Amino acid sequence: MDIAERFGVGYDGIIHTNGYLLDQEMVDFLEARNVRTAIVPIDGMGAAHDATRHLAGGGPTFDVIMGNLRSIRTSMFVNVRNNLHAGSLERFGELCEAVDTIARENGTNIRCSPSRVKRTAAGVARGDTTPIISEAQYERALARTDLPAKMRSFTPVMAPCPAALPNEVHIDELCNVFPHCSFYSDDPSYSVGNLLDADGSAGAWLSKLEERAKELCFPDDQSRCLACKFLPCCLGGCPIQRIESGEPECPSALFDPDAYAIARVREVG
Ligand code: SF4
Ligand code: SF4
Questions:
Q1: Model-level pTM?
Q2: 183: CA distance to ligand 2 center in Å?
Q3: How many whole angstroms separate alpha carbon 49 and alpha carbon 98?
Q4: Whose C-alpha in 25, 34, 39, 253 is 20 to 30 A from the C-alpha of 259?
Q5: How far apart (Å, rounded) are the C-alpha atoms in residues 104 and 111?
Q6: 171 - beta bridge partners?
Q7: Cα(160) to centroid(ligand 1), Å
Q8: Atom of ligand 2 at shortest distance to CA of 229?
Q9: How many CB atoms lie within 10 A of CB 261?
């Protein structure tokens, strides 16, 4: 913050947190350091969340986290990332409702953003067995909610995602530099280098990052996307998933375009 002030540039922060320690004291601490957004992943209601996001000793966390979200008073934007998998799908609407209630009653700028859990090669190697759902199941779940249609990931975009932008990076605790993607940043094969090994030249980093962005944006086989009438909207879906599976990952709205169109019409009146 001192450096930003000295050079007259803006600075604010986002924290990804499990929410377990996000009480009022922590919120005040973060706000004083200009953290403007907190992203809190929830893997489902109650036991569904506790099955995957428990304490190191196995204890539950859901009630503490929801209690924190209900009790805090904050000007931060709180994004509850609702991770959807086969175990959390059924009670997905209840979580949205619980979060909406907090927004209504506390005036918190809080929102539930559903996100489909993906299977990654690094996750499988770690023994991840989370039962995932298909894009079609995901879209059907979203269609049952009042979430804005634009959250169904099918609006025109300038790039498929932040991972495909050369000026956005993720740096891990060992100084490895990755494309900006929290799903794949534990997989060394997507790293573009390590800050400690770097020659210090900004130009060298930029060309490495541009090279990686190009690989992500333009895979060898683009024939299916090039023949698709939705191309200008989705730009080929998740680029890393496409590399891993060899197939584009079509946006969920594609599986129920009527529901998507109706929701969009409602949204714009
Ligand atoms: S690479 Fe895929 S998972 Fe990662 S940010 Fe982009 S769309 Fe999301
Ligand atoms: S990812 Fe699917 S919807 Fe998007 S352009 Fe490719 S084929 Fe079409």
A1: 0.75
A2: 20
A3: 14
A4: 39
A5: 11
A6: 177
A7: 8
A8: 8
A9: 13
**Would the CA dihedral through 130, 219, 248, 14 be positive or negative?**
positive
Angle, to 10 degrees, between the axis of helix 92-106 and the axis of helix 62-71?
30
Residue bearing the CA closest to ligand 1, atom 3? 183
Closest by alpha carbon to 44, among 88, 85, 12? 88
pLDDT (average), residues 194-216: 83
Can you list the domains of the chain with their CATH numbers? 2-133 (3.80.30), 162-250 (no CATH)
Residue range 146-181, pLDDT digits in tens:
665 545 555 666 777 888 888 888 888 899 999 888
List the residue whose alpha carbon is closest to atom 2 of ligand 2. Answer: 250
Q: How far apart are the first and last CA of the chain?
A: 42
The pLDDT tens digits of the residues spanning 16-69 come to 999 999 999 999 999 999 999 999 999 999 998 998 899 999 999 999 999 999
CA–CA separation, 168 and 145 (whole Å): 32
Residues constituting the chain: 269
d(CA 93, CA 99): 10
Q: What is the distance between the alpha carbons of residues 137 and 122, in angstroms, rounded to a whole number?
A: 24
Q: What is the DSSP letter of 65?
A: H
Q: Are 45 and 90 in contact (CB under 8 A)?
A: no
| Ligand 1 contact via 239 beta carbon (within 6 Å) | yes
Going 259 to 46 to 17 to 169, the CA torsion angle's sign is negative
Q: Is 207 left (phi over 0), alpha (psi -120 to 50) or beta?
A: alpha
Taking residues 124-136, what's their average pLDDT?
Answer: 84
